[in-house]
Amino acid sequence: MPIPFQISGLNPQPFAHLHGLSDAELAQHHAVRYVADAKPGFPDRILMRDAEPGESLLLVNHEHLPVDSPYRSRHAIFVLEDALAAGNAPYRAINAVPEVLRPRLLSLRGFDAQHMIVDADVVDGREVEALIERLLSNDQVRYIHAHFAKRGCYAGLIERA
Question: The domain containing residue 39 runs over which residues?
Answer without folding.
Answer: 5-160
